[in-house]
Design goal:
Length: 185
Amino acid sequence: MTNNHTKTKQHLANQSIKSMGKRLALIIKKEKVYQLTVTTGISINMLYHYANQKGYPALPKLALIAQECGVSLAWLFSGEQDESTPPITIQCNTLRLTVIDDAMAPTIPLQMDIEYQLVKPVQKKKRFSDGVYVLTNQQGFIVRRVQWVEAEDAYCVFGDNPHYPLQRVKEIAPIGKVTAIVQSL
């Protein structure tokens, strides 16, 4: 009985994803794809990939597409929109996050709150400026320094804590750029 229940749940989840894919395809096709590429930083190829339902974007990209197309994530996922809930908008440019590791200590200690501003993806030939960014990994949201090294054609991603190794990566997809460390009085 449990096996049938699990299969039913899986089937319903798959149907929800397919429906979400159809709504995503609808809004991408409705918008001018080139303009959507410019405003989101997502390549034309990836947008067509999503529009043809050959794949689905990660949640941050899905939220960005929804925002740029003037629809809510609730509508994308369910097809229904509560009239009292406007489409996805950012009321304030500054968001807050609690740091979940000590990689930036002593500058930003573990469990310290930071404020950050959302950043849009950049096109491949453009680079993010050096700074402290909110990134994603298996842990969730993390805070790291990011520095572009022209000679290596790569980003150095590192923390202020010497126990964490420096990483070199060709591409990053930051969520936001840190603007403040929030300390309670």
